[in-house]
Amino acid sequence: MTRRLAACAVAVAAVALSCRAIPAPADGVLSLSAVQLPSPGVVVRDTLRDSTGRAAPLRVYAFGVGGEADTIQGAAATTQFVLLDAGAHVTSDGYVIGDSVRTTPVRIIGSVGTLQTSAANLAVTPRPDSIGPTGATTMATVNFAATDTTAQSAALGATVLATGLVPAAPVQAVIVRYTIVSAPPGFNGAITGILLNAAGKPATVDTTSPSGQVSPTIRLRPAALAAPSVPDSFVVTASASYAGVPLRGSPIRFVVPIQTKAPNGSRIH
C-alpha cells in the first residue's frame, strides 16, 4: 500500500469513529454532582444540620446523558457515602454524626454504581455557644474622599467560641450572617455600601475560620451618597445560631461612621 493510500485509510477510519454514538450507561447515570453538605461542619456528638438547625443528610445528584437537565431522581436511594478519616461516621441513610473534634476536616466520598465523587471536606467541631466582637470595639469608621472608589471600613470582626470547654475554644465552620440594618441615604435611592467577605467578594454570609473568626468589611460608594458632606453611619448586625437557637451574644451590633477627608488626607470634622 502506498503512503497516500495508507493516509486515506486512516482518515476514513477516523471519520467513521467520530460518527459513532457514545453508548448510554447501563444504569442511566452518566455523571455525579459533588457531595452536597447541609453545613460546613458537624458538632461532636450531634448530627449534621442545615441552615435552619434541622438534622439533614448528605446528598449527591446523579445526571443522565442530558447533563444537569437530566437529573435521575431514583439514584439517591442507591447512593453510598464513605468517610475517609476518623472523627465522624455516616448512617446508612446519609446522616453524619460527629465523634471527636478534629483540627483537619473529615473527607467524604459519595458513589452511585461505579461512579464516585471527589472528596468533600467537613469540619468536626466542639459545640458553639457564644459569639462576640473580635476586637475591643464595635465601631469601624470609613474615611473617604468624593473621588474614592475603594473606601472601606475596618473589619467587622466576630468570633465564635465554645465556652463549655476549659479554656474556651474557637469554633470553625459556623455560618455567620451579616445584615445592613441602616445605611446613609443614596442619591435617587442608590445603594451606598455593600458587605465584602475576607476575600473581598460581596457576601452577607461568611463561615468562621479555624480561629473561629469572620472579618467582613463595608465597602462605601461615595459617588452614590445623597449628602456626602453630612455625617452619617451604617448600622450592621452579625448573628449566628446552633440547632436553630441564637448563640449567646447574637446579634452583635456594629456602627460604621463615615467621614469625609480633605485633599491632604486629613479628616474633615
Brief digest:
This protein is mainly beta.
Structure characteristics:
mainly beta; 2 domains; Immunoglobulin-like; five-stranded mixed beta sheet; disordered N terminus; 269 residues; 6% helix; 1 helix; globular
List the helices and strands and how they pair.
Elements (H helix, E strand, L loop, with lengths): L2 H16 L12 E2 L8 E3 L18 E3 L2 E5 L8 E4 L4 E3 L5 E3 L7 E7 L2 E2 L3 E6 L4 E4 L8 E3 L13 E5 L6 E2 L4 E8 L10 E4 L8 E3 L5 E2 L2 E4 L11 E8 L1 E2 L2 E2 L5 E9 L9
Parallel strand pairs: 2-10, 12-23
Antiparallel strand pairs: 1-3, 3-4, 5-8, 6-7, 8-9, 8-10, 11-13, 13-14, 13-18, 15-17, 15-20, 16-19, 20-23, 21-22
Tell me the structural class: mainly beta
pLDDT averaged residue by residue:
86
In the CATH hierarchy, the third-tier topology of the largest domain is known as Immunoglobulin-like
What do we call the CATH homologous superfamily of the largest domain? Immunoglobulins
Task: Quote the beta fraction.
Answer: 25-35%
Shape: globular
Radius of gyration, CA atoms, in whole angstroms: 26 Å
Order of SSEs: HEEEEEEEEEEEEEEEEEEEEEEE
Please, could you describe this protein's structure?
This protein has one helix at 3-18; strands spanning 31-32, 41-43, 62-64, 67-71, 80-83, 88-90, 96-98, 106-112, 115-116, 120-125, 130-133, 142-144, 158-162, 169-170, 175-182, 193-196, 205-207, 213-214, 217-220, 232-239, 241-242, 245-246, 252-260. The chain is mainly beta. Strands 2, 5, 8, 9 and 10 form a five-stranded mixed beta sheet that branches. It folds into two domains: 21-125, Immunoglobulin-like; 130-260, Immunoglobulin-like. A hairpin with a 6-residue loop joins β13 and β14 (169-170). The model is unreliable at 1-23 (pLDDT under 50). It is 6% helix and 35% strand.
